[in-house]
Amino acid sequence: MEQQAIFDEVIAQFLFRGVLKACVPFGSGHINDTYRLTFQWEDGQQHYILQKMNKSIFEKPEELMENVSGVTSWLRRKIQEEGGDPERETLNLVPTVQGKPYYVDSAGDYWRSYVFIEDASCFDQVAREEDFYQSAVAFGHFQRLLADYPAETLHETIPNFHNTIDRFAKFKAALASDICSRAEEVQPEISFVLEREALAHTLCDMQSSGELPLRVTHNDTKLNNIMIDNATRKGICVIDLDTVMPGLAANDFGDSIRFGASTGAEDEKDLSKIECDLHLYEVYTRGFIEGCCGALTEKEIDTLPMGAILMTFECGMRFLTDYLEGDHYFKIHREGHNLDRARTQFKLVKDMEEKLEQMKAIGEKYKNMVV
User: How far apart are CA 79 and CA 191, in angstroms?
Assistant: First the structure.
């Protein structure tokens, strides 16, 4: 079936209001195919987001959409109870004519649609300190609203995504097989990982022992997954819920720090440019704890710095693993790209290890914040 015919089929299956007037590719995402639709009626119009989900990344789209539907319904109810605006403060799925949150087309592909959030923007880079703070508040608020959600009922859309013990095991397997004969040239990086086997166990062991509670976690807490209101510049809505799974609050916090508090690009070759900016670390810590507003335990707050170190270490391990295996997972744009990425993450890990006591002190400063 031709692409246009499939598209017409899909459009007809969702409960959109009005007549379709425009359809354009939208956003900077690289996983799903995303379009913005404009529907018009006699006295107004409405924009929608339409996405074809990537089945090669998310192999069980029904389970993924069960997660998204459950979490967004919960958020909508909580936001209404607190007098907020559920039309702007959470994603709102558009149902199909059969009342489902997704549609499977005649080619077997999965589609979903959200109501477009007007007068708000996403940013790919931390250009303003205030935006980084707002993203922290928004992700913390996301944690608070979902604090009572039964996290164990969520599906793992990517199994063992932040299981650092499993990531370490996969790294050792890649090292043992060394299918591209690259290990000899990267011995310092390999040693860096092997010396930190105990580190890989830290949060996983605390979760297993019951010291850390299982939470609903976003697992992709970059700035560009927050909608920021154009007028108020406040973070209003967490988006891209594909990786919402059971997890640890420290992981969500840590991934934000890895991305947003680094002084250099993720693939910077000049490692002298890479460190953890403690001022930005404090900005994010203050915002995250403020947004959580008492939802986290003291132990969880104590582990936030370790979350930053572990998520950076895990990411570096994944880059190095992919390099050893021939660069089959992460897209590369030059020879040794994944190796550069791994080195950058490891430099950041080392810097954070040296600053750990200062990072802990920042957490203590805001631990008893009451908003």
Answer: 48
Pair of tokens at residue 38: 């404009």
CA atoms within 13 A on the CB side of 206: 22
CA dihedral for 273, 276, 279, 284, sign (positive or negative): positive
C-alpha 85, offset from chain centre: 23
- What residues form DSSP beta bridges with 45? 40
Q: Are 36 and 49 in contact (CB under 8 A)?
A: yes
72-124 tens-digit pLDDT: 999 999 999 999 999 999 999 999 999 999 999 999 999 999 999 999 998 87
Could you tell me if 64 and 155 are in contact, meaning their C-beta atoms sit under 8 angstroms apart?
yes
Termini Cα distance of the chain? 56
Give residue 2's identity as a one-letter amino acid code: E
Asked if residue 236 has pLDDT above 90, the reply is yes
pLDDT at 155 exceeding the cut of 90: yes
Q: Are strands 215-217 and 235-238 parallel, antiparallel or unpaired?
A: unpaired
What gap in Å lies between CA 24 and CA 35, rounded to an integer?
Answer: 5
For residue 2, count other CB atoms closer than 10 A to its CB: 7
CA–CA gap between residue 279 and residue 285 (Å, rounded): 10
Name the pTM for this structure. Answer: 0.93
DSSP labels, 113-140: EEE--TTEE--SS--SHHHHHHHHHHHH
* pLDDT tens track for 197-231: 999 999 999 999 999 999 999 999 988 899 999 99
CA angle 314, 122, 115 (to 5 degrees): 110
**258 touches 348 (CB < 8 A):** yes
Q: Which residues contact 359 (CB under 8 A, 6 or more apart)?
A: 276, 278, 281, 304, 305, 308, 352
Decide: residue 325, CB within 10 A, 0-12 exposed, 13-18 middle, 19+ buried: buried
Residues 6+ apart with CB under 8 A from 349: 196, 309, 312, 313, 316
CA 63, CA 56: separation in Å to the nearest integer? 14
